Automatic annotation (TrEMBL):
Keywords: Hydrolase, Lipid degradation, Lipid metabolism
Pfam families tied to this protein: DUF6363, Patatin
Active site (UniProt): S52 (nucleophile), D172 (proton acceptor)
Name by which UniProt lists this protein: Patatin family protein
Motif (GXSXG): 50-54
Amino acid sequence: MEENESVKNLNKPDKQTGLVLEGGAMRGMFTAGVTDVMMENGIEFDGIIGVSAGATFGCNYKSRQPGRTIRYNVALCKDPRYCSFRSLFKTGDLYGADFCYRVLPDELDVFDKKAYNENPTAFYAVVTDIESGLPVYHRCDDAQESLAWMRASASMPVFSTPVALDGHLYLDGGISDSIPLKAFEDMGYNRNVVILTQPAAYIKKHNKTMPYLRMRFGRKYPKMVKALDVRHDFYNKQRAYVRRRESEGSAYVVMPDFPLKIGSICHNPDDLRRVYAQGRVVGEKHIEGMKAFLEKR
């Protein structure tokens, strides 16, 4: 994957701590469990970068709202307005855009926009420009404006309509950069905690739906289709890079001990609680290690 110009043009702070959050749809319940434990233990970062669910759930770190992610997912997992094929057929989005990014944060489980805006921690959402096929790393300083970027970061091809922002069309950040550790390092964040949602032995395989994706998007968005076609190779290289940076002492990695066994869609609150609880257990084991790592600034 070629280097994205949007990284080169960002200001590069010196010796900054970062939190890197992989996506993974409902595997994000694991991440929420880990990050809730981290918040409860007062762990802070200079910057956070999230991809897909890593962005939509990770924003609660900046708004300092532990428990919010699991609470609203359990409460709404059976609500067709939140996530359903009914929503997909009716609105073009599996996860209903108006419901998820207006009704939910403004009325049902309020997203603390004031706390988000006042927290000096920088927060970035990764999106994919579907015309160039390249990642864009958008700094989300204002909570209200940022909701649209978070939505774009989590908008899966086929199951979401592209999100128009700043004259471009965006979809899931995981298409082009699933684990943006290198991108965050290029911005100047050089001591990073990385939370992954797959266990150590995981190897990503080629997407079996590529023939359909080529047929659906190949003529109009060939560069995005190319990114999707090589995504498994790029992802596996990113995992190797994370491991190397961990061995060099520049990254601290948290991941599940075994496959989480939860789908991209989950209507079972018990499964959500189970994966969240696994995240909390793993998070508790890593608290002291993370604190020691972050103190070596």
